[in-house]
Amino acid sequence: MGDTDINVTVKFSGRSIPITISPDSTVMQLKNLLLPLTDVLVRGQKLIFKGKVLVNEMTLREAKVTNGAKVMLMGSHGLHQGEGPVFKEAQTRIISRNTAVVKDNKEVPIGKNSLERWKATGVIALAECNLKAIPDEIWACAPFVRILDFSNNFIQRVPEQIDCFTGLKKLFLNANGLSNESISWGGLAMLQNLTVLSISQNCLNGLPCTLGDLTALQQLDVSNNELTTLPNEIGSLSKLEVLKANNNRISSLPEQIGDCTSLIEIDLSSNLLSELPMELECLRNLKALHLGNNALKSLPTSLFSMCVQLCTLDLHNTEITMDVLRQIEGWDDFDERRRAKHQKQLDFRVMGSTEFDEGADKS
């Protein structure tokens, strides 16, 4: 705290948020400090002091906000970001047995028929079975398994033994409440044939550098966690086509994301991003970029001219205006692609399609 700094208490949703700030700071600067603390976008914040709404351009000194002052914050509905994990409860009751699953509220032991089916099909589908641990029986099937689905359970640990699934293509661990410490990342890194990894709706606050060892990965879903950043090693995922990291608390992206040149779709909506790395311009195959509910005020200057396939751009609830977009090089060409994509969606509906397939135009 500097010699001239003041202490201000901001009241918001029943909370008291202490802020130390210079009295010569503007109201806008105070709002920027409140952004990561409240998850309310700057333009959704209304600060009230002694019954008056504070104007962004005013300094706190001009607004007569002094040491010990109490300021009320009102946040506009729908302008929140960085939402973090969203959990989906399993629909059946919890049981303590680890070698049984629950279907239709009845315990069903894992028997010989299940093992034979898993080996024959290469698919182990145990979603929403109220499992507290990975069943011991599945390890014997490991050499035969291509798809492993443990989503929507209560699994507390992913052991190093997961590395025995050497032929595994798709792994779903979403909605288990997993933390960083409960996953053997070293074991996961050995799954060199893995093309799809879904670990969304957990409690992860970071991803390890070993993520970069999964060089065959094409789809990565880490949405609805508590991530603050992505590892630099994500740049090693040269085959990655879809990255979903929405609903986290990511405040910055590594420059190495520009090395993921196969990316077609990126979802970074509902995070804490205030700027994007210029390296995004290297993603020549990018078609869809979702950035809604962030604190962004600008885009990389050559995004439209370099990413010549980009046709879907979501900037809902950001600070970026249409005037800003129109001044970016390549806007006209992007706008033409965007309109063509929209028309294609309309044509699909007219032809009787009940749901437009976002991947229908991927080549």
Which SSEs are present, and which pair or pack?
Blueprint: E1 6-12, E2 15-21, H1 27-38, E3 45-49, E4 52-53, E5 70-75, E6 100-103, E7 106-109, H2 112-121, E8 123-125, E9 147-149, E10 170-172, H3 185-189, E11 196-198, E12 219-221, E13 242-244, E14 265-267, E15 288-290, H4 303-306, E16 312-314, H5 322-326, H6 331-350
Parallel strand pairs: 1-5, 8-9, 9-10, 10-11, 11-12, 12-13, 13-14, 14-15, 15-16
Antiparallel strand pairs: 1-2, 3-4, 3-5, 6-7
Q: Your description of this structure?
A:
This is LRR repeats and ubiquitin-like domain-containing protein. With 363 residues, the chain is of the alpha/beta class. Helices cover 15% and strands 17% of the residues. It has 6 helices and 16 strands. The protein has a 9-stranded parallel beta sheet. Strand 15, helix 4 and strand 16 form a beta-alpha-beta unit. It is globular and about 75 Å long. The N and C termini lie far apart (56 Å).
